[in-house]
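Quick one:
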Amino acid sequence: MFVNLLGMNNHAFDGIGSARVLLAPDTGDDGGDPGADPGGDPPAGDENNPGQGDPPQGGRTEKPWLPTDLREDELFKEMKGAGDLGRAYKDTVEKLKGYDGRIFVPGDDASPEELAQFRTAVGVPESADQYELDIPELPDGMEYNKGLENWFRAEALKNNIPTDAAKELYAAFNEQQIQAYNSYVAAEAEKKEQTKSELKQLWGSNYDREVNFANRGISILSSIPGAEGLTDLLNDEGLLKDIRFVKAFNAISHKILGNGIMGGGELPGPSPYGDDEVIYENTPGMH
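Output:
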C-alpha cells in the first residue's frame, strides 16, 4: 500500500524531484523487492466467513457468501454464513436418502409425463383390458354381468387404481353382490312360505284345489292372444308371492269356469304349469 506522507499530494513531490516513500510489510528480508506480493495468508475469519475476516462496519454487505440474487431470499434469512449453508446442505442430502424408492403423488399442475410415471410406478395398467379380474362362482339363478365388469375396468383406469388393488376391489364387490342376491332369494322364499301359510288358513282343506283354480286362471288368461307373456311376467316380478294376486286369479278362474265359459265348474284338465313355472303347487295327481 502506498502512503503519501505529510498529507501532501503527488504534485508536491513532483516539485522536488521524484521522491516517493514506499511502506511495505516487514518481510524479514531487507533486500526484498518493494513491488513483490507480500504473501502470507489473509486474516483468518470464523467458520461462517472463512478467510475473509470481519468486514468493515460501514457499508457492510449482507451475506456476501451468497450470490447477489439469493441474498434477500427468505430461505437463507436465518443463516449467518457459509458454515450454516454447508450444514443445511448436508442435512438435506441425508434426509433425501430416506426417500429412496418412495413415490410422490403428482400435483394438479403435473405434466402428462409426470402423471404417466406415477401411474406406472404404482401399477396402473396402460389400458382397461389389462386388469386381471377373477370371475366369481355364482349361485343358481344368478347370471354374470359382463357389462358391469367392463364398467368397473373403465372406472378403475380412470381413477388410477393399481392392478392388485382393482383385483381385490372387484372380488369384494362381487362377494357383496352374491351376498345381496342370496339374501334376496332367502327373503323371497320366506315371503312365499308366508303367503302359503295365509292361504292354507283361508282355504283350509280345499287349499290344493283352490291353488289349482288360481293356476288355471293364469293359464286361461295366458291363452288369450296378446297375453301370452302373462305367466312369465308374474313369475319374473314375483307377483304370485303376493296373496292378493293368488286370490285374484283364483276368483277369475272360478268366475270363468262357473259361468260355463270353459264348459262348467270343473277344472278343464290338469294345469300345464309345474312348481318351477308357477309358484304354487298343483294338487297332487293333477300334474
